[in-house]
Every structure is written in C-alpha cells, then in structure tokens.
Amino acid sequence: MRLSLVLLFIGLVAGMAEPAIGFAQSAPAQVVQPTDVPLAQPRPGPAGLPCPTRFALPNVKLKDHSLFSFEGWYYLVSIRIDLSTPSSQGEQEFAYARTRDFCTWEKLGTPLRHGAPGDADETYVWAPHVINVDNTFYMYYTGVNPKIAQTIMLATSTNPADPQSWHKQGVVFRPHHPDAFYPGPTAWSDCRDPMVLVYNNRYYLFYTGANNNGPIIGVAMAENPVGPWYDLGATYQATEPGRMPESPFIIEYNGLFYLFYNASGTTGNGTRLRWAVSPFGPWQPSVAFQLGWAHEFYRDQTGLLSSYIIGNGLAIGVERVRWQQSGMLALPQIGVQTYLPMINR
Q1: What are phi and psi of 164, to 5 degrees?
Q2: pLDDT tens, 241-266?
Q3: Per residue in 38-68, pLDDT tens?
Q4: 3-state DSSP assignment of residue 89
Q5: Is residue 45 domain-resident?
Q6: What is the residue range of 153's domain?
Q7: For residue 79, what are the β-bridge partners?
Q8: CA terminus-to-terminus distance, the chain
Q9: Residue 262 to residue 277: CA distance in whole angstroms
Q10: When comparing pLDDT for 146 and 42, which is higher?
Q11: DSSP codes joined into one string, 102-161
Q12: Nearest 5°: phi and psi at 67?
C-alpha cells in the first residue's frame, strides 16, 4: 500500500508538479555587511537567534558553505564569486567570517585558495565542509582542474580563528566503486560537495557523483577523518537523467535520518528532503520546499542550526531548527516552514 506524501504548509499552490513548502511572510532578517575590525565581545552563543542577520559581502555571490564553531564564535566558510571579475576567475577562493550572536558578522581573510598549475584544485575550489575531531578541524572541499575533473580534497587547522592556519593535505578521495562513472583528470568527472557524517564510530563521506545509471549521491567509509576512504557506491540514485543531486547533507534526529539535497537540472530545480531509518537509505519520497538552497547544519549546545543560500547567492541565512513530533516522525521546521513526509509501504 502506498501512502502519498502529505504536506503541511501555508499558502499551498494547487496544481504544482511536485509538492512544495509555503511559508508565512514575516519581517525579513536584516542583511548587514560585515566589518573588517575586531568586534567587541558580545554575549555568548544564541539561545534562539533573537536577531538573525544574514551574512553578505558587497558585490560577491556566495554558494555552498559550512557552519562550525570555535572558542565561542560561529564561523562561516563559503564559495566566493567576485562579481567584478571575469567569470573564469570566480570560485577561486573561500569567503570566511565569524559571529558570536548572529547579529553582527566579522569578515576574515580567505582560508583557502585554488592551487598551483598541475594541482587537483588548480582552477576552482568548491563546497567546503568542516568538522571538528579532537580539536583538529578538517575542511573537506572540492578541487577542480582545468578539465572540470573534480576530487575531494582536505585542509586542516588547529586554530581556525587564524585564516592562515589552514594547511592543504591534498586529494583524499576519488570515486572507485565498481559501478562508478568517473573518467578521471582529463575530462569532466563528477565528485563534489562533500559532507562527512560520524556514525557508529566510523566516518562516512557523502558526495555528488555518477555511476553507469546516472547521477548519484555516493558514500565512502573510513576509520578516521583523513581516510583512506572505501567507496560504497550510491546511497541515492537520481531517477531523472541529468538531474544532479547536489549539496547533500544528512542529519539524525530521534533515530531517523533526513537527507537534504539540491535537485539541479534544466527544470524543476530546488531543495529536496527525504528520510530513512538508516543514513544509507532506502530513502522515502522527496518533499520540495522553497526556503533557500545548499542547506548545511551544525549542532551546538542548544540544538541544531541550519544555514542556507538566499536567492542567487545574495546572502547566507541561519535559522534554528525546531522539531514537532508526529507519531514515529519528527517534523523539522526551518524558519516557519513545516513539512510532513509519510511512508511508502
């Protein structure tokens, strides 16, 4: 028996090809440009984001990013595209900023730039993702060469307050499961948007890639955060050829796992969410919703924070995630959106 997805939202538009989340219009969060000077010491980390200020930079487009904390500060690191430079020179370094309270942002120097000729990240650096293991910070990112061959690379730091403290460790992963479609360094090769989940004392690297059946979210396993990584193949196989499931992120709540990703294609783009009883699927049918894209999550002492891109890279918003229990499912809320995925049987 198949139960269809049920969506609980405000202002449902009839006749949509795929369910979407609507949300009530409230006063927009303020967009404030960050300062270049050290900030006065404000209060400690937020309990409920009383004054969420979106992070933006003048004449800069922001994309995939990561949110983490260190010594009382929250840090954002993001793809940076300087709109005043030729498009071929975009995505060559990361933006970096921090805040204590999400009311005011302090801009920092770039922590990482593209590599030298011949390096795997010679042309672009994409999609940073940071985790903290025993006070060492691991920044996974996508390195791109002139042929748009992509690899997962790593930089590390023990003091991320200093942008210059990040040190590149080179390539840590290329797809190699038996069904992988990965031509290699001389052609466009999909392997991007890393996200690492610690589960049962192992590390699982989720990535956007491809196999012989089309686009996938793949997963690789390692015993420590630097690898070596063993490629397990697809955890999610896209059903539409050419629609890449980009920017994957998995969160766990009360024993269930929620997969966020951006469905990218010629039409019908947008953020999707699925859930499963395992971080490896099988994943229940997707829910589409409209609040941002390239969602990232960070768990602090208060709960779960969600960061996401606003518009076409205008800014990065941060909201605290709330949960509503409904039977076996907990319903995540970001901002004032609520969705209710249900089960295929």
Answers
A1: -80, -5
A2: 778 999 999 999 989 999 999 998 76
A3: 333 333 344 456 677 899 999 999 999 999 9
A4: helix
A5: yes
A6: 31-338
A7: 94
A8: 5
A9: 21
A10: 146
A11: SSS-EEE--S-B---TTSTTSSEEEEEEEEEETTEEEEEEEEE-TT-BEEEEEEEES-TT
A12: -115, 130
In a domain, 23, yes or no: no
Q: Which two tokens stand for residue 243?
A: 């629609």
Q: What is the pLDDT of residue 50?
A: 67
Q: Higher model confidence: residue 123 or residue 289?
A: 123
Find, among 326, 267, 318, the residue nearest to 297 by Cα. 318
CATH number of the domain to which 55 belongs:
2.115.10.20
Distance CA 236, CA 6 (A): 22
- Using CB atoms within 10 Å of the CB of residue 52, give its burial: 0 to 12 exposed, 13 to 18 middle, 19+ buried: middle
Phi-psi region for residue 185, left (φ > 0), alpha (ψ -120 to 50) or beta?
Answer: alpha
Cis bond upstream, residue 228 (ω within 30) = yes
Structural domain includes residue 26 = no
Distance of CA 265 to the CA centre of its chain: 18
Q: CA-CA distances (angstroms) from residue 241 to 152, 176, 210, 216, 287?
A: 23, 21, 10, 10, 19
Percentage, residues of the chain above pLDDT 70: 81
1 vs 97: which has the higher pLDDT? 97
What is the chain's length? 345
Q: Are 115 and 97 in contact (CB under 8 A)?
A: no
Q: What's the domain count of the chain?
A: 1
* Residue 90 domain-assigned (yes or no): yes
**pTM for the model:** 0.84
Q: What is the pLDDT of residues 263-278, one digit of tens each?
A: 987 666 788 999 999 9
Q: What is the rounded distance in angstroms from the CA atom of residue 314 to the CA atom of residue 251?
A: 25
